Amino acid sequence: MIRIILLGYMGAGKTTIGKELAKELGIAFYDLDWYIQTRRRKSVKEIFDEFGEEGFRKIEHNMLHEVAEFEDVVISCGGGTPCFFDNMAYMNQQAETIYLKADLDVLYMHLQMGKGVRPLLLNKTPDEVKEFMSRQLAEREAFYSQAKYTLDVSLMDNFEKIAVSVAEVKKLLQL
């Protein structure tokens, strides 16, 4: 049985690497945010708007406990998932956890290129976004660093480098 959870800050490439890794391993892939949206029939933004961050984090916690029971799966969790409740300890208990680590400038660039709505970044100027990200990344590092493995993904800017990152994950986990 294979159970892998990818974690890290927004824009680190958890979904991108997760999809490719699951495809190569021939197992299922779940993005925790997408799973929540499917189960709740609302976007993450709508859940944030309706319940606030605290309400969203409770829902996220419950959904994490569902998907982390699945077998033969790669899961990418939201950037904040490891930082609430007992989520990080639970993920380490349930799966091989990998922190996809990138520096602030790389994360910022990835978020600028991304198409998704990030509720925590809405209505912020570029400078405010960078300051917010810097502060939040510093706060979250203590949780992220509890992952069983860490993979630097700062140079993941094209498909070839994504393939290298996937190969590195497989090597780390001896798959």
Furnish the topology, listing elements before pairings:
Elements: E1 3-7, H1 14-25, E2 28-31, H2 32-40, H3 44-67, E3 73-76, H4 87-94, E4 96-101, H5 104-113, H6 126-144, E5 149-152, H7 159-172
Parallel strand pairs: 1-3, 1-4, 2-3, 4-5
Structure description:
With 175 residues, the chain is α/β, with parallel strands linked by helices. It is 55% helix and 13% strand. The protein has 7 helices and 5 strands, in the order βαβααβαβααβα. A 5-stranded parallel β-sheet has the order 2-3-1-4-5, sandwiched between helices. It starts with a strand and ends with a helix.
Low-pLDDT regions:
none
- Count the E strands: 5
> Gap between N and C termini, in Å?
11 Å
- The overall average pLDDT, rounded, is 91
**What strand order characterises the main sheet?**
2-3-1-4-5
Helix content: 40-55%
Write down the secondary-structure element order.
EHEHHEHEHHEH
Q: Radius of gyration, Cα only, in angstroms?
A: 15 Å
> Main sheet, how many strands, which sense, barrel?
5 strands, parallel
Question: What is the overall number of helices?
Answer: 7
Relative strand content = 5-15%
Q: Identify the overall geometry.
A: globular
Helix- and strand-based class? alpha/beta
Give the tags.
175 residues; 5 strands; single chain; 7 helices; five-stranded parallel sheet; alpha/beta
